[in-house]
Amino acid sequence: MRTHVGIIGAGPAGLVLAHLLQRAGIESVVLESQTRPYIEERVRAGVLEQGTVDLLNELGLGERMMRQGLMHYGVELRFGGRGHRIDFADLTGGKGVMIYAQHEVIKDLVAARLAAGGEILFEAKDVSVGGFEGERPVIRFTQNGEPMELHCDFIAGCDGFHGVCRGAIPDGVLKAYEREYPFGWLGILAEAPPASHELIYANHERGFALMSMRSPKISRLYLQCEPDEDLNKWPDARIWEEMQKRFATMDGFSLTEGPVIQKGVTGMRSFVVEPMQFGRLFLAGDSAHIVPPTGAKGLNLAVADVRVLASGLKEFYASGKRDLLNKYSEICLRRVWKVQRFSWWMTSLLHKFGADSAFDRRRQLAELDYVTSSRAAMTTLAENYVGLPLE
Ligand code: APR
Ligand code: PHB
């Protein structure tokens, strides 16, 4: 088999890249180790930056998102028993975010790609990459037990944090930067109408909590917990009781409760490798960087990477020039680090740190007070939340 760009991983990075390349008349094949139903049902975050929304619409992939997604123009920060709204539209010249689950985005991207005759090879096993130091990259894998080879001009490593591409780059090339947080998030999906029409990020002395949603009937809620929290210790009644405590306000706010339909624990880390390319292998999305989920930047950052990659590949196929491709990593990393900073900042602002001193706690509350009262500080939050401009 032969194609222009071999894409490993059918997550947001790989699938958006395939669509961007298709628009530019560049062929690609996507290899995915999981089955189609698996990637279409996997519960992940659900906040799309304004730029991601605009791109999906531009690519003709936004029809269902515009019908079923919920456009939000603000969020609430809650602390000390009071809520404070950050008005994105007012602070950013009309921008907002779309609440639309990542796996719904995946369904739309897969359906459109297959309908256009694009190739996505599901259940591709034992994937390995080679030849990218020179001019002839090759991806080896097995499908239904058969060994296969995909020859290509470039390999896009869109295979997430646990993929094979990052590790295929020779030792000594990449430098990793990492921070682990001493907590995780216990997340649930519940058949309960969200108690507020916008997201609530709560800083509480018992720990962080977040109220998000998937539709006017389904809530998505998170609680700060131990990184290795045992879900067996969290029957539904205990989860609701803890949530109610963390969201409580002076004026008697209460969450709407309902059957819990999904439960899970997510670890929290910040991670970046530099550079994000080696020869003809380019890393994009979670394969190159991870952000903690506070601020919901993972998907959006993956999309920003592949926009840069697609522009570089377009330039190459149009003119043979590699100027933009050579700068791929440099261009992406400027955004990656700003988004890392924002995700780290939101995380630090809102969570309870085990070793917090009384001083740190007071400082955190002062920062929340500042962020919710200074227009300059609110603007900083708002412009990062809706998404920084693309280069
Ligand atoms: N071969 C083929 N496919 C692989 C391999 C492999 N060896 N390893 C992983 N994959 C697939 C995974 O099954 C997954 O579908 O690569 C895909 C990677 O997708 P994501 O993990 O979604 O990563 P990315 O596209 O970079 O999107 C980042 O997704 O994980 C969330 O929080 C993250 O929102 C962020 C976004
Ligand atoms: C979600 O809806 O899953 C979500 C929302 C906001 C976040 C993280 C996750 O910061």
Describe the structure.
This protein is of the alpha+beta class. Helices cover 36% and strands 28% of the residues. It has 13 helices and 20 strands. The chain has an 8-stranded mixed β-sheet with strand order 6-5-14-15-16-13-17-20. Strand 14 and strand 15 form a beta hairpin. The longest helix is centred in the C-terminal third of the chain and has 23 residues. The protein is globular, with a radius of gyration of 21 Å. The two termini are 35 Å apart. The structure holds adenosine-5-diphosphoribose and P-hydroxybenzoic acid. The site of P-hydroxybenzoic acid has 11 residues, from strand 15.
Unreliable spans are none
What is the spatial order of strands in the main beta sheet?
Answer: 6-5-14-15-16-13-17-20
Hetero groups in this structure are: adenosine-5-diphosphoribose, P-hydroxybenzoic acid
How would you describe the shape? globular
Measured by DSSP, the beta-strand proportion falls in 25-35%
Q: Count of DSSP helices?
A: 13
Mind summarizing the main beta sheet?
Answer: 8 strands, mixed
Radius of gyration: 21 Å
Write down how many β-strands occur, each being a DSSP E stretch of 2 or more residues: 20
Distance between the termini: 35 Å
Give the integer mean of the pLDDT values: 97
Percent helix, as a range, is 25-40%
Structural class designation = alpha+beta
How do you describe this structure in short?
The protein is of the alpha+beta class.
Write the layout of secondary structure elements.
Layout: E1 5-8, H1 12-23, E2 28-31, H2 36-41, E3 47-48, H3 50-58, H4 63-68, E4 70-72, E5 74-79, E6 82-87, H5 88-92, E7 97-99, H6 102-115, E8 119-121, E9 125-130, E10 138-143, E11 146-151, E12 154-157, H7 165-168, E13 175-190, E14 200-202, E15 209-215, E16 218-225, H8 236-247, E17 260-274, E18 277-278, E19 281-283, E20 289-290, H9 298-319, H10 323-326, H11 328-350, H12 358-371, H13 375-385
Parallel strand pairs: 1-2, 1-12, 2-8, 5-14, 12-19
Antiparallel strand pairs: 3-7, 4-7, 5-6, 9-10, 10-11, 13-16, 13-17, 14-15, 15-16, 17-20, 18-19
